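#struct-help
A.M.: can someone run this one for me? Single chain, 70 residues.
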Amino acid sequence: DYKRQRADRIAEQAEEWIREVRITGEPKRLNLNAADRRVVHKVAQDYSDVETHSEGEGHNRQLIIEKKSL
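D.P.: on it. Structure tokens below:
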């Protein structure tokens, strides 16, 4: 169904965003809806060197992907 396909596409994109953050070391800020943020949080849990969190309120809420500080 549509939601499952969208979640799969977001998960694939999340892998790319995480790879980019791991290579550059630069945090990535994303404007995503709540369902998409949840998918990215779940994908990021598989990486021990990356963390995610959300900042902001309502429509201005952003997801941040960044390398964990050592």
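A.M.: thanks! The chain has a mean pLDDT of 96.
D.P.: also worth noting: The beta strands are 28-30, 50-55, 62-67.
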